[in-house]
Structure formats: structure tokens, C-alpha cells
Amino acid sequence: MKNSIILTVILLLAxxxxxxxxxxxxxxxxxxxxxxQEIEVQYSxxxxxHKNRDFSSALPYGWKVISMDPExxxxxxxxxxxxxxxxxxxxxxATVEQKNLLADTTIYLYDLAMKHFSENKSYFQLRxxxxxxxxxxxxxEEKIKQYEYAFELxxxxxxxxxxxxxxxxxxxxxxxxxxxSKALDLYTYLSEKEPENSxxxxxxxxxxxxxxxLIDLAKKNWDLDPENLQKAWKYxxxxxxxxxxxxxxxxxxxxxxxxxANVAYWNQLSSLYYKSEKIDNAISAYRELIKLEPNTKEHxxxxxxxxxxxxxxxxxxxxxxxxxxxGGGWGLAIFYEGLLYETSARGCGFEFMDKxxxxxxxxxxxxxxSVDGSLNQARERVxxxxxxxxxxxxxxxxxxxxxxxxxxxxxxxxxIGRSITVP
Length: 423
Known about the structure:
This protein is mainly α. It has a domain at 1-116: Serine Threonine Protein Phosphatase 5, Tetratricopeptide repeat (Alpha Horseshoe). It contains 22 helices and two strands. The longest helix is centred in the first third of the chain and has 21 residues, at 96-116. The radius of gyration is 35 Å and the shape is elongated. The termini are far apart.
């Protein structure tokens, strides 16, 4: 077995060197002198040996096929050649020298694959990065370079590989401050990508003394590259996580100036304005969101809630009704309309007209339940208002009969413009 491995390595390296040295000539000869049937024969032999897991015998035929035409079987041959090389390299009988030779040859194979099968270039680059780290133990700069290029080709690469690079950066950051910054960026990205994975936050915390330091570093990175919106967003995200609302708001205000059509930025900014009780600013932000996404019901609802807080009840109702309309009869928006009536009555008194407004609120809650049976809060409000609506005696003393309308009016209720029907 050892002799076979040695022979195979010598052969495949010889073929590799020939192919590498005469590559341009080989391509020129391919179209003129290579017999297509001969390529098929060579590939058939290679594939048969591969299928039978006789990888040592398969390799020479595989190299022959690649040297004859590196693209004809590119959807299969590079993966199968990879199988052969990995198997031989992982063999318990392979010496250290043989393993090193096979590692170099595998990287050479990946370079060929990336050149002649570019549609899956990211896969081969990631495998190359892994081998550079694990098999060859290349210099730190080379490991980092290979992984970063793999992530550039495919940012959605599995987090496992990001973590491998993160550990390389952490292990060497005492010698290079830039590595610490890169590790912070990497684990910040992972914590945003997978917020449910607490391990990424643990990694972040291990890199700094406290989150304030993390925020300062993110701000420094952004200041050095002020047009980089990703760095700005990282700074904002960390500020929010630390409860530094003012810092987050300041960052977001810059972001929406630089990217005024970015809904994510406006959503976050409007939310922070509201939480920070900057209601006027929140109202303006919600209006911007409506311009950007006029068919999103939540924007109208949030605007209505902010207007309600400013006691602009009539305008708030307009937004709740629009939210319900956009949402195709959205029960939650109808519920909030009912809250407007109830809130208005609570701030006025407990005379007959106030009771009528409570009834209007209860009727609105019932309408909300009729379109969305899951609104238990609306049912609870109906029950809570049972003792606040007009009684039979209230109607009797005013000579009001069932079916008659009572117009809502009075100084507290000029904005309502509704009537209730006597039950």
C-alpha cells in the first residue's frame, strides 16, 4: 500500500507539473489534436475506478482527462478527484511527506477547478482555505487571506467557517491589533446573523473588557470609513444592545440621510424615537415609512398610536382606519380606534354622553372581534365597560326608545362625529 501511495503521488505530481508547465500549449492542442473519443475512454476508466473506490488507480486517468480538456467534465471530475486525494491523504499508511505532497496537489486541483468550473468557485475556495489552515498550517496571513476570499465569494458561508477564521484572528491578535478589529467585526456579524446563538455574544465579550469598549471600537471603525453603511449599522446595533439610545439615534439619523430609501433604518429609527418619547420625531419617521411602503399596515397603526399620545385623536383615528383598510379589515387597528373613544371618555366625566361614548367604544371593540376572533384584549375591554355604558333607566328618563340614534356631541367629543343606537 505504501509503495502504491508513493507511486501514485509521484505520478500525479509529475502529471500536475507537466500540466502546469505546458498549460497554455495543452489548451491550444486540445481543439486540434485531442480525440474526443479518447477523452471519453479516459474519463470512463477514471469514473469506473472511482466508483469502485480504487482511488490510486483512478487518479492518473483523472489527471489525463483534465490535461486533455479541463472543462468537458467539470461538473463531476473535480469533485471525484477531490474524493481521491482526500482519501489518500487521510490514509493511515500515508507518511507525513506524502500527506504534504497530497495537500499541495489538492490545492492545485482546487485552483484548476475554480478556473474551469467557476459556477461553484466559492465551494473550492472554501475547501482550499480549510486545507491551508488544517493540512498545511500556512502562515497566519495566508490562512486569513484564503478564508476572507471564500467569504467574499459567498457571504452566506456556514457560520462554522466564519468561526474558524475568528479563532485564528483571536489567537494572533496580541501580535496584530488589526486582527482584533477583524475578529470584532466577524463576531458582530455572526451575532446579528444568528441572534439566537449566545455563543457569538460570548465571543464578543471575550474580545473586550465591556460592551462600551465594543461600541467605541465600532465607532472608531466607522469614523475611519464614514461612507461604509455596514460599519455604521454595526455601531448602531451595538449601541441599541447596550441601551445607548441617543448614540443609536444619532447613528441612525446619519444612516437615513445617506440611505433615505432604506426601510430597515427608518423602522429602527422610528422605534427608538418612540421609545425615547421623541413623539414628534417618531411621527415624522412613520410618515416617511408610509411614503416608502404605502401598503404596510403597521406603519399606519404606529403613526396612529403616536398621534394618540399627542392627543391628536381625530388624526389618530384616520390612521387606524387606514391601517384597517390596507390590512383588509385589520382587527387590531379597529381595536385601537375603540381605545380612542374609551380614552376620550375617561378624560371627560361620567354623564350620559360620556356613557354613550363608552358604548361607542364597546361597539367598536365588538367589531374588532368580529373580524379577528383572536383579539382577547378587545373582548376584555367590552366586559370591562359593562358598568360604564348607559342603563335602561338612562334611556327611559330621556325618553329614548330602542332603535333611536343618539348623536355624540359635547366639548370633549367634537372630533368624533358619530352616533350610537339605543339597544
